[in-house]
């Protein structure tokens, strides 16, 4: 029965002109150019990180970035232990909003499917492309590699942060997907059908949306690094298009994409903020300096 539903859903998407992953055909020419243009436009305005000062040691840089991938993951995992009142209010708001969306998933799905048409199909292709794994990996690589080879720490760190956010968000997303086993909307089982943990069939891996996770990982990490309102608006507009496209092609419920967006945004900004805290610690210090009259305490920042 499930296989039959999947075949019917696939046939319907072919008829409508939208296939899962079909947007990858336009991705190589459009997506990297658009978002790398946004990135480089704000690059010159970014401050130079402290680790750019002094002689460049490529092997040390590679080792530092590799090590940070694991140390940052550990620090992020422990972040909830240090939440303040505001953090918990925000977390509660996200959880409440997810529950409210889940209660209206069926209605929102019907409205989205009523919009199906040839024009919407082409737009959805673009949105789906930005959520492909290849999009995230290519953007991370096109930032990190030139930054590393040319010894441009700003670019290198931007690429590293994109890659880290993609890795962390994907790991959490896969854990949630496999644990809940939520049925995708095209199966016509309703928004409250869950098959439980240890699911391997993609039809039961709806929550959270993987494409939305990729799109908002890119948007959040780059926005946090660049800190330019126009770039942020462009990145999040593209990520939102990806989320809507996943609902449009009937692969996800509205709560699926909302959870993915919230999760990726939190991880993206958290990853960048960890590096900023390291910068603050490395640029401030207390120094005890002996003098003829005793000891002088110096604070540098």
Give the fraction of residues assigned to helices.
55-70%
Which residue ranges are poorly predicted, with pLDDT under 50 across at least 5 consecutive positions?
Answer: 12-29, 282-301
Mean pLDDT: 81
Number of helices: 11
Give the SSE string: HHHHHHHHHHHEE
Care to count the β-strands? Answer: 2
Class derived from helix and strand content: mainly alpha
Radius of gyration using CA atoms only: 22 Å
Describe the largest sheet.
2 strands, antiparallel
Estimate what percentage of residues fall within beta strands: under 5%
Give the CA-based shape. globular
Widest beta sheet: strand line-up: 1-2
Query: Domains counted in the coordinates: how many?
Result: 1
N→C terminal distance: 66 Å
TL;DR of this structure?
This protein has 301 residues and is mainly alpha-helical.
Task: Characterise the protein shown here.
The structure is a single chain. With 301 residues, the protein is mainly alpha-helical. It has one domain. It has helices spanning 2-16, 27-43, 58-77, 85-103, 105-113, 118-130, 133-149, 153-180, 210-226, 229-248, 254-282; strands spanning 285-291, 294-300. A two-stranded antiparallel sheet has the order 1-2. The radius of gyration is 22 Å and the shape is globular. The termini are far apart.
Key descriptive features of the protein:
mainly alpha; two-stranded antiparallel sheet; disordered C terminus; 301 residues; 2 strands
What topology emerges from the helices and strands here?
Blueprint: H1 2-16, H2 27-43, H3 58-77, H4 85-103, H5 105-113, H6 118-130, H7 133-149, H8 153-180, H9 210-226, H10 229-248, H11 254-282, E1 285-291, E2 294-300
Antiparallel strand pairs: 1-2
